[in-house]
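Worked Example 4.2. Consider the chain below.
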Amino acid sequence: MDVTYEGTKREIATDKGVLRYHEAGEGPPLLLLHGSGIGVSGWRNYRGNLDVFAEHFHCYILEFPGFGVSDPIDGHPVLTAGSSVIRFMNALGIESAAMIGNSMGGVVGVNVAMRNPERVRKLVTIGGVGPNIFSQHPSEGTRLLQDFADAPSRDKLVRWLEAMVYDRALITEERIEERWAGAADPESHKTLAAMYGSKAFEAQQQAMADSGVPPYWSMIGKVACPTLLTWGRDDRQCPPDMAMIPMRMIPDAELHIFPKCGHWVMIEAKQAFERVTLEFLLR
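Applying the procedure from the previous section yields the following structure tokens:
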């Protein structure tokens, strides 16, 4: 099976621009939804897991609008990501699918499951879902993202990358250079600034406080599909106390916490994550 970058890359035109993605495998559909952060992409999040999941599923790694791969569209990145999932599924004729979402991708998956329950068969989240209960908000990782969004530098990138993992040996020069090159894309940085720039972040917090609309996590009990919450015990971007409310409120939820692991569970606890996730998805 070809699971290389060139061998799996695809694109499809929609009424709001081109969505790009990677496709491999046969079987029931599985959508892999990426997180936010510096120089992020779906391929960089999941390329190491694609071969394993493609043995059992028809996998689609979707690139969200505004992160330098798919065509950008106006709107907050989390909202445009959510609408892109539905556009993507409609364009390919996917009625329902299992979904794996890393961090922001998990929030996107939760929102799709709440608003379009018939489209999500099962959901796996990797950190990111829920509110900070005991940990500081913004978290250490988010503060490092704010520092970079306000004034990018390679040193700030390295500090953030090292906060993403338990084992700093994973932050190789190759990974640093790849993320630095990705961050240089104007659309990618525009999206990062819209999410994490200090002024934009403060404006979002104030708008949420003034809106009278409850936060998404307060309605998370509407997620009807079986849900697996996965977390790194040493996550400094989204500390594991965030898992408590979704674990309690989602009717059919279970939680697996990986030791000696940071925010990138699918990378740092690769084999254990794949084993636990496959067991859940194949039940």
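The chain is about 40% helix and 15% strand. Strands lie at 9-14, 17-24, 29-33, 58-62, 97-102, 120-126, 227-232, 253-258. Compare this with Example 4.1 before moving on.
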